[in-house]
Design goal:
globular, 19-stranded antiparallel sheet, mainly beta
Length: 321
């Protein structure tokens, strides 16, 4: 696999709608807001009540989060990706990934290594008992200062991101590249509010975000190539069990992205207070058909999408408590 697979095809339907003619991206890394100017506070400062409890108090702890997607693409045919995120003590510890392309199945195990202070420092993929790729994360306090990706089968795919913090902004540089990215965070909430990409100093793409008072990401606006697209997100009124489970991966999910990847969908699914259940984009609307147990805990989401040009997607999510 080309990139470390923390979340496979996260809500691919939405990404395909919002990317318009961009290629489908099947690899997204997900890591809750830490204040860039206060690296000693690793929690979401807008929710000080009990940031260590990732569950709805009416249930046990979330133990497994499953995301499965089947994509049919002309030429490539059917691509099936099944991912189980294993959760212990309120955090993801590993992910079992099964990918089938051209009728050939490949199994992989992603492992997550943390320091004693809780910082996620290493994500390594293994297939057939052999490491295939790894992502090494370096910190200055609680803030990420460096992300190094190694694709062991093809070193030309390797990259290194370095980060410089100035007040409420963070600049990302890529070793050996003229591309840079500037991230702006809200000083009061620590949430990312704007991401701008540059090439040799020229702005090439901007994505901005709006939030509800409870922290739900309500919209993302993407400006690129002379066009502006607005993507809107709809939520239920129940607790999102993924928010705290993936809390220690907020910075990584924001920082470890490429220019064509929309960040809004990741913020909606993993870092919003309520469950993301539907969306509106210039290319179409969609609904994830959520199901709940008797305590209003979400237990599944699913959908089938026809993106045109012969591309169809069926996705399903399951939550085990």
């Amino acid at each position: 696999m080309k990139k470390t697979l923390l979340l496979t095809s996260i809500l691919v339907a939405f990404l395909c709608f919002s990317c318009d003619d961009e290629p489908i991206n099947f690899d997204i890394e997900v890591t809750n807001p830490t204040v860039p100017t206060d690296p000693t506070d690793p929690t979401n400062p807008t929710d000080p009540t009990n940031p260590t409890d990732p569950t709805n108090p009416t249930t046990g702890q979330l133990s497994v989060y499953t995301y499965d997607v089947t994509t049919n693409v002309p030429i490539f045919g059917e691509i099936i990706t099944d991912t189980d995120f294993n959760i212990q003590n309120g955090a993801v510890t590993s992910a079992n990934i099964e990918i089938t392309t051209f009728g050939v199945m490949v199994n992989s195990l992603s492992t997550f290594t943390r320091e004693t202070n809780g910082n996620l420092t290493l994500i390594e993929d293994n297939a057939g008992g052999m490491p295939t790729n790894r992502t090494t994360i370096t910190y200055d306090g609680a803030n990420i200062s460096r992300i190094q990706y190694e694709f062991l089968e093809d070193p030309t795919e390797n990259y290194t991101f370095n980060f410089t913090y100035t007040g409420d902004t963070v600049e990302k540089t890529i070793e050996g590249s003229t591309v840079t990215t500037t991230y702006t965070f809200d000083a009061a909430t620590s949430r990312v509010s704007r991401v701008e990409w540059f090439d040799a100093g020229t702005s090439t793409r901007v994505e901005t975000f709006t939030y509800a008072s409870n922290g739900n990401c309500m919209s993302s606006t993407v400006e690129a190539n002379g066009t502006t697209e607005v993507n809107n997100y709809t939520y239920d009124t129940f607790t999102n069990p993924l928010k705290a489970v993936f809390a220690d991966q907020y910075q990584l999910s924001v920082f470890n992205t490429e220019e064509e990847e929309d960040i809004g969908g990741t913020l909606a699914n993993f870092h919003s207070e309520n469950n993301w259940i539907a969306g509106e984009t210039p290319q179409g609307n969609f609904n994830f058909n959520p199901q709940y147990d008797a305590n209003n805990n979400i237990i599944s989401k699913s959908g089938n999408y026809d993106l045109g040009d012969g591309v169809t997607i069926a996705q399903s999510e399951a939550y085990q408590y």
